[in-house]
Every structure is written in structure tokens, then in C-alpha cells.
Amino acid sequence: ENWGTFHESVRFPWPLKPVKLTLKKRNDQNNFETIWETEIDPASRMVNPAEYESGLKTYTVLSNGNPNQKVDIVILGDGYLDDEINKFHADANHMADALFEVEPFKSHKSDFNIRCVDTPSPVSGVNRPHPGIFKRTPLSVSYSAFDSERYALAYDNRTIRDVASAVPYEFMFILINEETYGGGGIYNLYSTVAVDNTFSEYIFVHEFGHHFAAL
Questions:
Q1: What integer pLDDT is reported at residue 1 of this predicted model?
Q2: How far is Cα 159 from Cα 165, in angstroms, rounded to an integer?
Q3: Domain containing 207: what range?
Q4: What total of structural domains would you count in the chain?
Q5: Coil, strand or helix: which one is 159?
Q6: pLDDT tens digits for 173-190?
Q7: Mean pLDDT along residues 116-140
Q8: pTM value?
Q9: What are the angstrom distances between the C-alpha of 172 and each of 15, 50, 65, 71?
Q10: Strands (DSSP E) found in the chain
Q11: In a domain, 118, yes or no
């Protein structure tokens, strides 16, 4: 069944001179083959060097040093009302504690920084198509990805990247302000978890393994 396309980003340091960006994929023989490439000239007037100014508030969960020398995680939240932002911060601290209770993260806690970016929502909770609960939230997180009721993903990649750019990061977690069991994790993209059920801590660590290390 065709589910359409999935928008992603290629992130890399700003080039100092013209470069060629090449994406490769393994074929059936397990060899890499080029699937797309483009040339980028940072001096071109078609390349916009302006930084995105979100004006969003940020919150630090864990600070262990210079981002150039640490693993930096950004935590975003979806479905949190403005008066639930303190809950978002508490949820972020709680999930971070859960992550660093297990190895190998426990032994390497000092290698991580974790920061949050606040995105207050006009509604509490997120979109849940299976039970017919429809909502529009800042990050467009939705259950029922690929028609799996528990699978929760965010599809508005451009907005997510703009929001996350408020802090340094390599890896991203999106907390969902919901009780219903759910989450997801995609290697080198992001991971998600619904924060208010009895399995939330386990799912947080589990999905981060998919995102962080392709486990």
C-alpha cells in the first residue's frame, strides 16, 4: 500500500566553499549507489544564510559542557497548553532520569546535554484518528501513523527543524502530552513517546535506541 512521501532533512555544518551533497543507499547486493545529489554554493544568492529566529523559550534539563564536545539532545513537546509548560519541563526531567538509569547511558551521563524548546499548543493532547479525536497542534504529532493506532509520528518536518534550531542538538525527542500508549523512533530523525501511561519510561528508552543507534 502506498502511504505517500515522508519529508526529512539533511543536516551538516555550513560549508565554507562550494560542495556536492550526495545521498547513497544500499542496493540488493548491499552496495551503495547514488540516489540523489546536488551542488551547494554558500556564496550563491539562492542560498539563504540568515539564521532562523524563533523567539521560543528554552529550558535546560542537563548541562555538562560545550556542545562541540557533548552529545546534545533537544526535547520538544506537543499538545501542551501554555499553562502546562511546567508539566512539559517536569516530564522532560522525568524521562531524562529514566534514560540515565540504564546502561550504557548511565555510565556516560556526563557526555550528554539535554535542552527543551517550549511550543505551547492551543489544545491539550494530540491527534488520534482511530478513536475519532482530531486536533491541530504546533508540531502536528499524530497517532495512527501507517494506520497503526499506537504509532505516533510528527510529519511537519520543516516546523520541527525550525523549532529545534533554538538550541544545539544532534538528537531529538518529542514528548506527547497524552495518556494513550504510543510512540515511535526513526534512526537519525527523532523519537516520540506519550508521557502519561505506565509504559512511558520504557518506551522512551526503547524508542531512543531506534533513533540514536538504529537498534
A1: 65
A2: 10
A3: 58-213
A4: 1
A5: helix
A6: 999 999 999 999 999 999
A7: 98
A8: 0.92
A9: 23, 23, 18, 11
A10: 19-26, 32-40, 58-62, 71-78, 112-117, 141-142, 153-154, 171-176, 183-186, 190-194
A11: yes
